[in-house]
Amino acid sequence: MIKSVKLTLTDANNKTISSQEVKSDEFGSFGAEFTLPSTIVPGTFRIKSNQGTAAYIKVEEYKRPTFEVTTDKPKRKICTWRHTKS
């Protein structure tokens, strides 16, 4: 049985960010996509349905990793290729 399901995306303060209505398939499954604004504050977000179900999403700030790789100087020359006789 195909049903209409209303989905609502809320932020950590329970403020509605977006909502949409989707239709389920004959098995009761449905899919949806939400796009978060770039100015959003990180936290736990919730997608709730008018069917009484909810899913939680944790949004964190991306921090570019910084690292440095150092190696010791080779003690001898290293050859990465060799001539072979045919």
- End-to-end separation in angstroms reads 72 Å
Total of helices: 0
Biggest β-sheet description:
4 strands, antiparallel
Shape: elongated
Tell me the fraction of residues in β-strands, as a range.
Answer: 25-35%
Biggest sheet: strands side by side, in what order? 2-1-3-4
Structural class: mainly beta
Arithmetic mean pLDDT: 88
H/E series, N to C? Answer: EEEE
Helix content: under 10%
**Uncertain spans, ≥5 residues at pLDDT below 50?**
none
Counted beta strands = 4
Q: What is the alpha-carbon Rg in Å?
A: 26 Å
Describe this structure in words.
Helices cover 0% and strands 33% of the residues. The model has no long low-confidence stretch (mean pLDDT 88). It is an all-beta fold. Strands 2-1-3-4 form a 4-stranded antiparallel sheet, with no helix packed on it. The protein contains no helices and 4 strands. The protein is elongated.
From the structure above, extract its key features.
single chain, 86 residues, mainly beta
Can you describe this structure in just a few lines?
By secondary structure, the chain is mainly beta. It has no helices and four strands. The protein is elongated.
Topology:
Layout: E1 4-10, E2 16-23, E3 43-49, E4 54-59
Antiparallel strand pairs: 1-2, 1-3, 3-4
